[in-house]
Every structure is written in C-alpha cells, then in structure tokens.
Amino acid sequence: MPLGTLDRTPPPFFKQGPSALSKLMVFSSLALFLMVADTRFKITQPLRAVVATVLYPVQWVALRPVLAVRGAGEYFISLRSAQKTEEDARTKLAQQAVRANQVESLAIENARLRKLLELRERLTAPSQAAEVLYDAADPFTRKVIIDKGMAQGIQEGSPVIDESGVLGQVTRVHPLISEVTLITDRDQAIPVLNTRTGARSVAYGDPTGRNGGLELRFMANNADVQPGDILTTSGVDGVYPAGLPVARVDNVERKTDAFARIACSPQGQVDGARHVMVLRPVSAQIPPRPPVEHPVPLQPRRKSGPGGAG
What we know:
Helix content: 25-40%
Number of helices: 2
Radius of gyration: 40 Å
CATH class of the largest domain: Mainly Beta
Number of domains: 2
Shape: elongated
C-alpha cells in the first residue's frame, strides 16, 4: 500500500475535544452567570427546594444513629441528675421530718416559758408568694425583679426568703414589680447570730470572694467561729424576723492582724431561686414609740424682800 494513502487522523479513542482552557472559561462563565442570576432573580430557589425535598429522607436516615447516641447520652445524664435530686430531696425531707417532730414540743415549751416570764409573744410576719421574673440589668449588682409591687401591698425594706433561707431585701417598689437586692450584693449587710455560740455579728455581701457569698467582718482574730457554723437572723435590726437561716461558715483565715477573714456561703438559692416569699418587715408590726414628754421647767423661787413675805 502506498504511504500516501494511509489515514493519519487519530482514532476516536484519543480525541480530546475542546482544550482545557476553553472548558475552564466556559464553565467559569456559566458558574458566574448562575451565581449572579441566583442572587438577583432567585432562579435556583425552586431547584434547591426540590433537591432538599428529595434528599430529606436520606438525611433523616443518616441522622438517626447520631441522634440515638446523643439521646442515650442525655438520658443517662438526666437519669443521674434526677437520682441526685431525689437523694437530696429525701435527705432534706428526713431532716424536716425530724424538725417537725420537735416543733410541737418546742412550741409548747416556749409558750410556757414566755407565760412564766411574762414575755410578749413572738411576732409572726405576714407573707405573700412572688415569682422571680429576671435579673437586674446592672451587671455590677446582685438584684432580681419579682412580680409583686405596690398594687399587692409590697413595702420597701421587706425581707425576701425561699425554702432554704434568706435571699435579700426589697429595695425598690414599683406599681406592679419590685426590685430585690440579694444578700450577696456588696452594699447589703444583715445582722446574724451564730447558732452554736450565740454570738452576734454582721454579714456583708462579698460577690468577689472565693465563694461569691458573704463575709463576716470585724470579727476578732480569736473569735469562736468554726467552719460549718450556721448563721441565722438575729432580729435586732427590726427588718428580718429572728431565726431565719442566712449562711454557713465555709472558711476561717486567722491572720496576724486584729481581724479574721471569715467566708460564708448563703443558705438560700440566691443564684437560682424561682419562687420566693415576701415577708412584712418586723418594724411594721411593732407599735410606735410613745411621744417623749418634755418635763416642765421649774420656776425659780422669788426671793422675799426685807419687808415682804417669804
């Protein structure tokens, strides 16, 4: 066969078509056109909806193992939390049952002693329930807002407690809401009584401390205070009724200076209280002081003259 008659064209298997640069320019232009068109005219929204609808069953099946593992982990975590909460509740219930068994006998004994000593009956503070709405907007204070105000008879200075102890004091009253300053606020101070020793002192809010609670200030370095001591309201300030749990002593640092550093943690749930009780101030139940009667000044005696009567 003559060489001039040979077919020198490549077989179809080796045909490359358009060049790579041409393909890059075409597909880049198409991608740019689609992005602009989708941004301006939203032409791919129906297509996306169709693709999402078609792929939803696949996504649902693919997520089942992940959700199952996550749900199992949350179940065990919630189970442990529920068991701990139940154990704490049973412990508190047992403690309250022991106290309840002693209340009746102590009340009878207290009434007999007061009658014997002719003391007046202890004041019982009227109360009403309230709910915490939200924390105050000021991040440098420890305050909460409750859903009771002037319309419900809330007074400024009223103590606020929960089922565990004292939370704070009403410091501002509005028509429908009130502002409560917690006992851990730096501007709050509350007279307390050490139930073990009977010593009176004053607890100040200490939000920057290690426990973010309270601090007993101006206590002598050799004062009889130990970790674990329970502090209750002393009732001498005319605001809080006596005997309400306030705090527990956590740490006592006896330094070389004159005063000890005593850190306490509040008994009430100052960080998570939801339902509270607002008490009437003790001073509002005490009769007012009688007016002071000024004695009439004595008239000086007139001296008798030589011929007058004495």
